[in-house]
Structure formats: structure tokens, C-alpha cells
Amino acid sequence: MEEIDAIQEAGAFRALADSTRRQILEELRAGELPAGEIAARFPISGPSVSRHLGVLKAAGLIRERREANRIFYSLAEERLALCVSRFLSVVCPEQVVFRLHARRLTAGNQEGQEGKESRA
What we know:
The chain has about 120 residues and is mostly helical. The protein folds into two domains: about 5-80, Winged helix-like DNA-binding domain superfamily/Winged helix DNA-binding domain (Arc Repressor Mutant, subunit A, Orthogonal Bundle), CATH 1.10.10; about 90-120. About 70% of the residues lie in helices and about 10% in strands. It has helices at about 5-15, 20-30, 35-40, 45-60, 75-90, 95-120, and strands at about 35, 60-65, 70-75. A hairpin with a 2-residue loop joins strand 2 (about 60-65) and strand 3 (about 70-75). The longest helix is centred in the last third of the chain and has 27 residues, at about 95-120. It is elongated, with a radius of gyration of 20 Å. The relative contact order is 0.13.
């Protein structure tokens, strides 16, 4: 798994500070999109969207793929998850413990349910 240092994490959070960039990430949640289609979804100029895409790419939150004269962008989910989860584990360590406990409870409940069903 990739390690994220404090400078990379800060860059990711700076990129996430802008609402347009967060919207771009939401648009990419469904999958890869060409730059033109991303730009068409926003009420700002194409060059402005391009600058936002550049910030997201520099922060490592999106990937770029070129095909002929088109540029496609996709979400770098693992990078985003690493930055946010590392920050939350430092700021809210009890949340990590809570999530692990909740997973164990859910797994235990599923096992208990399966046992009941097999006995029925």
C-alpha cells in the first residue's frame, strides 16, 4: 500500500477545499470521463475546468489517460481514501476503534444469523 507523507496529504486537502473540485470528483465516481464532458457539466469556462483538473491531478486524486487527441480522467480512489483515512485516524482515533468494533459486531451477527438459518 502506498504511503502518504504530510506534504502530499496537505496537497490533497488543498485540492478538496474547492467545491468545484469536489463536484468533479463526484462526477468521476461513476467512472472515467473525457475532459470535454466534464467541462460541459459545469457553468464555468473550459480553461477553468482544466485548471481544476490540473490541481486534482497534481494532488494525485485523479488519473489522466490520453487517447489520440482526447484526455480521459478517472478517480484515484485509493489515494483519496489513504489521505482522508490517515487524517481521521490521527484526529479521531476512537473512530477507527469504533469502525473495527462495528465490523466485528456485523460479522458476528451475520455468523449468528447463518447458524440460525442452518438449524431451521
